[in-house]
Target: DUF1489 domain-containing protein
Amino acid sequence: MPLNMTKIAFSAASPADLRAWLESHEAIGEARLTTRYLPTRHAEMVGGSLYWILEHALIGRSPILGFEQRESDGRWHIRLAPKLIPVVTKPKRAHQGWRYLKEEDAPRDLGNGESSGDIMPPKLARELMRLGLV
Model:
C-alpha cells in the first residue's frame, strides 16, 4: 500500500485554479512541485498521491510519479500526474511543507455521478471541526 502526503495548495484560490494549474502541465506529462528535502519515505510514496489542502480541507489528490533532484540548488521536485482527482472533503489543518498521510486516513475519491456540490463545503466542515462536531 503506497504512502500518501498532504500539502497546501498555496497559490490556488479554488479547486478550479488548482485543476487549471495541474492541467496546464499535461503537454509535458507531469507537474512539479519543489521541496527543500527529499522525504525519508520517498520510495513508499511512488504510486501514492499528494492530497491537496484548500481552505482547511482535503479537496483532491494528484498521483505521485516520483522524485527528482534539481541540479541547480539541491532541492527536490515532487513529480505529479497533471490531474486533480476530487475526493470527499475532509477537514485538515493547514501546515507548512508536506506531511505523510496513511491510506486508511485518506478520504475516498468521489464516485461517478457525485460532485463536490454533494459534499460539505470546506468552510462549513472547518467550522464544524472547530466546534468539535466533526
Remarks:
- The chain has a mean pLDDT of 88.
- Residues 14 and 87 are 14 Å apart (CA to CA).
- The helical segments are 15-23, 42-45, 122-130.
